[in-house]
């Protein structure tokens, strides 16, 4: 890695191939991938339907620019808004860009500047989305941030109720904080945000970059609650590994995002749109999502039963197939041990082991992952103390 900026702490693992939930490294060792490229490969590695759709599009045209009609982009947008009350989609290439679009749209539409976000949130690494992110370690060293963001404590209903500032353009929130430790927003808290937005004439922006595209057993996690967002952002799982992002919004916002107001050269190009279309045709079906819910319940029950009994395991939380296991010490050592034992997992904050298996993971694979977790957590606890 001598020619790449050292912006990542990389694990000593080179994945050479992947199929479904299983990846193979350069020594031919196999692993169960319960990271899925950080909630990206929601249909596992190289899902045949998506591979075929991209291959078909590869043989037609790859990129034309948004100067021209792109019917497959329209198809993708229709599928994406289908299970929601949102009407339009702006396509971009990442989660940060989708949030960037949301911030610009909210400010232009409301003619107000201030955006409320939450502590321990994560919204991206561009200047605006970094400023939106309520974590000091993300801001460090970059000088003065954009001044119009205010961070409230997450799940603090009272703090939301007390906001009384007519300059608020939007409140932006994750229904489950992913990077912040797999922390679920309470119903009360989320309803307070919804009400406050109505009261102040502010837009409700839900960041579904990690929780969307079926991860919780709903198309989007906000659908677990009685919420009516104006804007929803998506990326990670949207293209099964093809880089693509999207911002969904209500019809009345279309006048604000009119011709020339925002754009992206690559956004929604035919290849990306083919990946999105094939991904959503599979995931946004009732039967598929029902399966995710049932496997999520099973996974949680098994983890509660087999891990919570171990000393040092404090909590198992999450929804559907985004799961956090909080332990009473730094978890990085466990992430290494799990990998050595054939299970890929990732941190969410220093003490939380996060599991993000593909949504089409099998029960057998879940059982195997649990037995590896059990073995590693048990053994390490006994032998390291
Ligand atoms: C990953 C993530 C982002 C940033 O997405 P990128 O594609 O890395 O720009 C934004 N919000 C949430 C909730 C995320 O999990």
From TrEMBL:
Residues recorded as bearing N6-(pyridoxal phosphate)lysine in the entry: 236
Superkingdom: Bacteria
EC number: 2.6.1.11
One GO MF term: N2-acetyl-L-ornithine:2-oxoglutarate 5-aminotransferase activity
UniProt cross-references to InterPro entries, sorted A to Z: AcOrn/SuccOrn_fam (IPR004636), Aminotrans_3 (IPR005814), Aminotrans_3_PPA_site (IPR049704), Class-III_PLP-dep_AT (IPR050103), PyrdxlP-dep_Trfase (IPR015424), PyrdxlP-dep_Trfase_major (IPR015421), PyrdxlP-dep_Trfase_small (IPR015422)
Keywords: Amino-acid biosynthesis, Aminotransferase, Arginine biosynthesis, Cytoplasm, Pyridoxal phosphate, Transferase
Pathway: Amino-acid biosynthesis; L-arginine biosynthesis; N(2)-acetyl-L-ornithine from L-glutamate: step 4/4
UniProt record similarity statement: Belongs to the class-III pyridoxal-phosphate-dependent aminotransferase family. ArgD subfamily.
Subunit structure of this chain's protein: Homodimer.
Comment field (misc): May also have succinyldiaminopimelate aminotransferase activity, thus carrying out the corresponding step in lysine biosynthesis.
The protein, known as: Acetylornithine aminotransferase
């Amino acid at each position: 890695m001598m020619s790449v900026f050292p912006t990542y702490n990389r694990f000593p693992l080179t994945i050479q191939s992947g199929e479904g939930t299983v990846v193979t490294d350069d020594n031919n060792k196999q692993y169960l991938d319960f990271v899925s490229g950080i909630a990206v490969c929601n249909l596992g590695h190289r899902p045949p339907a998506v591979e075929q759709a991209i291959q078909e599009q590869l043989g037609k045209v790859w990129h034309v620019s948004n100067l021209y009609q792109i019917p497959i982009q329209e198809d993708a947008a229709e599928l994406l808004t289908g299970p929601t009350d949102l009407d339009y989609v702006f396509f971009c290439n990442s989660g940060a860009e989708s949030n960037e679009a949301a911030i610009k749209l909210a400010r232009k539409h409301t003619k107000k500047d201030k955006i409320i976000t939450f502590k321990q949130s994560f919204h991206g690494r561009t200047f605006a989305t970094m400023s939106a992110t309520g974590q000091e370690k993300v801001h460090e060293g970059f000088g003065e941030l954009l001044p119009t963001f205010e961070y409230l404590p997450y799940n603090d209903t009272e703090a939301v109720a007390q906001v009384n500032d007519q300059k608020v353009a939007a409140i932006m929130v994750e229904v489950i904080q992913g990077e912040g430790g797999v922390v679920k927003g309470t119903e009360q808290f989320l309803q307070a945000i919804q009400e406050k937005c109505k009261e102040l004439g502010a837009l409700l922006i839900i960041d579904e970059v990690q929780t969307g595209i079926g991860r919780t057993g709903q198309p989007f996690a906000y659908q677990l609650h009685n919420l009516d967002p104006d804007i929803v952002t998506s990326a990670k799982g949207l293209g099964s590994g093809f880089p693509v992002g999207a911002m969904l919004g209500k019809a009345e916002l279309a006048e604000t995002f009119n011709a020339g107001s925002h754009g992206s050269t690559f956004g929604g190009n035919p290849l990306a749109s083919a990946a999105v279309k094939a991904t959503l045709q599979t995931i946004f079906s009732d039967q598929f999502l029902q399966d995710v819910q049932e496997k999520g319940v099973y996974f949680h029950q098994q983890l509660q039963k087999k891990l919570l009994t171990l000393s040092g395991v404090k909590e198992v939380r999450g929804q559907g197939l985004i799961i956090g296991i909080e332990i009473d010490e730094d978890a990085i050592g466990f992430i290494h041990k799990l990998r050595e034992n054939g299970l890929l997992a990732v941190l969410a904050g220093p003490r939380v082991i996060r599991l993000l298996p593909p949504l089409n993971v099998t029960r057998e694979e879940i059982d195997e992952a649990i037995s590896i977790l059990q073995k590693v957590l048990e053994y390490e606890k006994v032998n390291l103390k």
